[in-house]
């Protein structure tokens, strides 16, 4: 289902109520986004960088969370986990593609570890929700950790078990650990959305209850590595 905000509000002309990702973009915005993506892609071309993939509901929010982690060089919103090649947002939202909204994180392992990225992931999701994330419900908004090799799996499973063993952590932990699949970048207008449309983004994030729920789940650790 599409990402709907479950309330009726009167908004100013600067902020219109709409399904969060179902927004078109102008040609100039698309070109600017493409140029920005080219710049970050070039920066992330080094063989010294590593890649991690996480799904945590709205990829706009997950992208912002990881961009704030020191050592993260690039984040890309996209789709993974399903069988449809090069899907569109509309396909992932409305059709049975098997894909989740996800974020590919390119990072410098000499600055930040995969373990730290896992901690940041947990503190930015509701791992107890098996229907979606926050106000966004449906298969494409499920949380998941996609592991690319045995070491990532070992670390991911250890971090999940540590939460299960922690009496103070949220429970039950239902977020799965899955084998990495082909990752497809989302449309340009989704990339760095929180920077390009901050007013709309912050309205959506707050109205969806993401910040409040994270604080309820994680306390002072909410949203942090």
Automatic annotation (TrEMBL):
The active site is at residue 58. It is an enzyme of class 1 (oxidoreductase). Residues 51-202 form the Peptide methionine sulphoxide reductase MsrA domain. InterPro entries: Met_Sox_Rdtase_MsrA_dom (IPR002569), Met_Sox_Rdtase_MsrA_sf (IPR036509). Keywords: Oxidoreductase, Signal. One of its GO terms (molecular function) is peptide-methionine (S)-S-oxide reductase activity. It comes from the Bacteria. It catalyses: L-methionyl-[protein] + [thioredoxin]-disulfide + H2O = L-methionyl-(S)-S-oxide-[protein] + [thioredoxin]-dithiol; [thioredoxin]-disulfide + L-methionine + H2O = L-methionine (S)-S-oxide + [thioredoxin]-dithiol. Its EC number is 1.8.4.11. Residues 1-22 form the signal peptide. SUPFAM superfamilies: Peptide methionine sulfoxide reductase. Belongs to the MsrA Met sulfoxide reductase family. Has an important function as a repair enzyme for proteins that have been inactivated by oxidation. Catalyzes the reversible oxidation-reduction of methionine sulfoxide in proteins to methionine. PANTHER family: PEPTIDE METHIONINE SULFOXIDE REDUCTASE, PEPTIDE METHIONINE SULFOXIDE REDUCTASE MSRA 2. This is Peptide methionine sulfoxide reductase MsrA. It comes from Spectribacter hydrogenoxidans.
């Amino acid at each position: 289902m599409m990402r709907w905000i479950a309330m009726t509000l009167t908004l100013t002309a600067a902020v219109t109520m709409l399904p969060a990702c179902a927004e078109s973009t102008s040609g100039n915005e698309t070109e600017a986004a493409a140029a920005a993506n080219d710049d970050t892609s070039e920066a992330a071309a080094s063989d010294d960088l590593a890649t991690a993939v996480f799904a945590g509901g709205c990829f706009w929010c997950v992208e912002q969370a990881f961009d704030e982690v020191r050592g993260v060089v690039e984040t890309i919103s996209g789709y993974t986990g399903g069988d449809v090649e090069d899907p569109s947002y509309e396909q992932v939202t409305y059709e049975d593609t098997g894909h989740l909204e996800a974020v590919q994180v390119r990072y410098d392992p000499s600055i930040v570890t995969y373990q730290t990225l896992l901690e940041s992931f947990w503190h930015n999701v509701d791992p107890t929700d098996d229907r979606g994330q926050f106000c966004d419900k449906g298969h494409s908004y499920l949380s998941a950790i996609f592991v690319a090799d045995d070491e990532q799996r070992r670390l991911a499973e250890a971090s999940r078990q540590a939460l299960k063993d922690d009496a103070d952590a949220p429970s039950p932990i239902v977020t799965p650990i899955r084998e990495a699949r082909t990752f497809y970048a989302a449309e340009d207008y989704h990339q760095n959305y929180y920077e390009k449309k901050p007013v709309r983004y912050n309205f959506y994030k707050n109205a969806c209850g993401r910040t409040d729920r994270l604080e309820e789940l994680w306390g002072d650790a909410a949203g942090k590595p």
